[in-house]
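Reply to dn_fold:

You asked what the input looked like. This is it:
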Amino acid sequence: MSRGSEVRQSLIQSAIRVVSAQGISNATTKALSLDSGLSEVYIYRYFKSKDDLFKQTFNFLDKELMFVMKNSLDKISVTKDGNVKFGFQSVFHDFWRFTLSNKDKCSFFIQYYYSSFYISHFEEERKAIYQPLLDEMAPAFTEDTDVWI
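and this is what came back:
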């Protein structure tokens, strides 16, 4: 891993810890710097802004979650007559094991997801990220199901 990748990853991990401990509105660049052991300058060298760091952190966690969910899809299959054989209990278990296995990640994810920045800047982008996964899962739902709920 390159030095730049290590610094980015260190700042992402700090964002997870600091937001979890102090809340998203109290996660200052100074707090991120102290947690990571890096100068605040690195935040702006590797990210456009503190909000961009948070967005990239959320995206990092989202990709981890999508990886877990995609790997769980093989537990669900559709028979030739269109019936769905549910392995949803396993998928549900995988999702919650991932989500609750790290309190800090879960806390960051929830706080960012409900933040005004996410709602105004990232919600549509996230839907585009998840659309391929939802397309794969479509046979498990009726046509009138709102999968975004």
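The chain has a mean pLDDT of 83.
Hope that clears it up.
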